[in-house]
Structure formats: structure tokens, C-alpha cells
Amino acid sequence: MIQKAIEGLRNPPQTVSTITATTQQWQDRLEAVGSTRAAKGADLSAQVAGMVKSIHFESGGRVEKGALLVELEDADDVARLHAFQATAALAQLNYDRDSKLLKTEAISQQTVDNALATLKNNQAQVAQQQALVSYKSIRAPFSGRLGIRQIDLGQYIAPGTPIVTLQQLERIFVDFYLPQQALAKVRVGQAVIAEVDTYPKLKFTGEILAINPLVDEASRNVQIRATFNNPDERLLPGMFATVDIDIGEPKRYVTLPKTAIYYNSYGSITYVVENAGKDEGGGEQEVARQVFVKTGQTRGDQVAVLEGIKPGDVVVTAGQNKLHNGSPVRTNNEIPVPFSANPQVSEE
Predict the structure, then answer these.
(1) Burial class of residue 169, CB neighbours in 10 A (0-12, 13-18, 19+)
(2) Computed from CA positions of residues 158, 159, 162, 164, in that sequence, does the dihedral angle turn out positive or negative?
(3) How many Cβ atoms are within 10 Å of 332's Cβ, its own excluded?
(4) What is the pLDDT of residues 45-103, one digit of tens each?
(5) What is the CATH number of domain 11-24+251-331?
(6) Which residues does 170 contact at the CB level (< 8 Å), separation at least 6?
(7) Topology at the third CATH level for domain 29-41+167-246
């Protein structure tokens, strides 16, 4: 009796939480992370240097395509344009006069050709100067929402100086990468679900727009772009996004909480609770048996078990660190273990 008492003290029952394994319908999916970008987006800047003469926009405002945003000082360029226009007008008169004289054979064809060449040269100078004048007016290349102004009135800016960002937000792209093995499972037009941590309860539905025809040689990954309608402009360029792509037909798997799986260098392990008969007091004695399992994909707090566990098995979900093969256990399920396919982040 004393010996048995000592053995009982050495190996007392350990309190664990358990769950009865069941099967659930499981949709295989590919998971990836990516970044958002606008369907149209640009950081606007000037093509030529100049002094900021006037600013025609407010930070954060919406503008239409072609709207005038910034004007640079252009008095010198406009005066030079007028001079070129005057020279071109004189060249036109000379050419018209010489063309009439040629009909009466008063001048040679060479004189007319020279007058025509002079006219075209002067017209080209006018066109060139008109382009320089137009560069002093920065306009919106497309409709969208402006960012924060980066320049001030009277400031001298060099070519390429950032003025403001312009983003068209009605449609958003998400660029992400998948391993080359996944190429056979994705196609253009396939549905995609994206989530951003800014809105943890929202799922954005889109579709694959394009698959890069080039696989990166270093990573063996391929870039994929998905498109999402964004009428409320909740998605902004530069956001970090997680992407899920459902593939294949739904299947049924045994699913367990992630906490039920214990990982070590030998593989994935879980503990199954079994009845070991009656104890000395006549009660049911339960023990934990170590089982190696093969796991599949995860979904929220759940993990699919492909091998090792069958429906109806009672699996330990908490307290495994105190167990070894054959440990007596006592079940206490007062504290629930997270087991949701779509866990929600608490806002408290």
C-alpha cells in the first residue's frame, strides 16, 4: 500500500482541457501577403525649373483630369514665344509672296524652297517654345484625390521636385507573390479575398487581374495582381494586405485547435485521452497517449489534421507541457480554447 501511494505521488493526474475531434467542410486555399497600390497613381513634379507663381489646389482635394494645379513664372518664355510667332508670321508672308512670283517666273524655284525651309524652321521654333510655356503649367494627368502639398508660393523648384501625389482610388490593386508550384491552381478572373488590419472585420472581394509571365529566379516566386473595387476609398495605396484564394472543391477534414498540436524536432504531436479502467476508488481513470499527426492548412484558430486523429477522439488542447506518454489526466473544460475559423480581434 505504501509503495502504491508513493507511486501515486510521483505521477499525480494532470489537469488538461480537451475537445472531441469532429470533421468540418474545408476549402483549400492559397495564402499570401502583398501591398496595395492605386490603379492610377503618380507623384507629380515639374519638367522645368521655375518660381512658383500660383497654386490652384488644396491638400487632400479631388481634381478632374486636366485641372490646373500649379503655375510657374513664365513671363520670359511667353515673350520669347511672341517673338518666334512674329518671325514665323513674317516667314509665312515671304513664302506666300515668293510663291506668287514663281508663277510669273520672276524668281527661281530655289528662292521659294529657301523661303519654305525658313517658314518651317520658324514654325518649329514656335512649337518648341509653346511646349516650354506649357511645361510651366502643371495639370492633373487623370482624375483622383490629391495628397499633401509639398511646395509653397514663391518657392524656386528644380525639375523633378515633388509637388503633390495624385491617386485614383476608385479601383485598387493588390500585388502579391506565390510560389511557382501554385501557378497551376490560379487563373485570371479567379476570386480573391483581401484583408487589412485597419479594418479587421472587413473582407474585400476582388479577382486576379494579371499573372506575371516571368518567375523570379532567386525566389522562384511569381508576381500576381488582383483588382478590387474601392468606391468608399477605404483601401489606400501602400497598405499591407493578406490575400486568400480558394482553390479546388471543398473537402471534409478532422480539425483541431492550433493549441492541440505540439511541435518538436521529431514532428507534430498531440495527446489523445483514453480510458485506462478503474482507479482504486472505483472511478474512471484516464491517461494521455502521445500521437504523431500530419497537419495540413490552417484557418483562423483551426488546423486540418490529415493523419493520426479520427472523428470521436478526445484530444488535449491545453496542458500538454505537463504530459508524457501514459500520464494520468483529469479533464477541466471550464476555460474554452479558441477554435474559430474566422477569429475576431477585440476592440477593447
Answers:
(1) buried
(2) positive
(3) 12
(4) 999 999 999 999 999 999 999 999 999 999 999 999 999 999 999 999 999 998 888 88
(5) 2.40.420.20
(6) 39, 229, 230, 231, 233
(7) Elongation Factor Tu (Ef-tu); domain 3 (2.40.30)
| Cell 483541431, located at residue | 256
| DSSP β-ladder status, 240-246 and 191-195 | antiparallel
- Three cell numbers, residue 188: 485570371
The cell numbers describing 59, all together, are 491638400
- Is 74:53 a contact under the CB 8 Å cutoff? yes
H or E element in which residue 308 lies: none
Q: Which residue has the cell 508660393?
A: 153
Reference 303, options 295, 315, 293, 294; nearest CA is 295
Cα end-to-end distance, the chain, whole Å: 55
Express each pLDDT in 232-287 by its tens digit: 999 999 999 999 998 878 888 999 999 889 887 788 899 999 887 666 565 678 89
**All residues at 6 or more sequence positions from 201 whose CB lies less than 8 Å from its CB, including other chains:** 344, 345
Grid coordinates of 19: 475537445
How does DSSP classify residue 198?
T
**Domain chopping of the chain, boundaries:** 11-24+251-331, 29-41+167-246, 74-135
Backbone angles phi, psi at 324, to 5 degrees: -140, 175
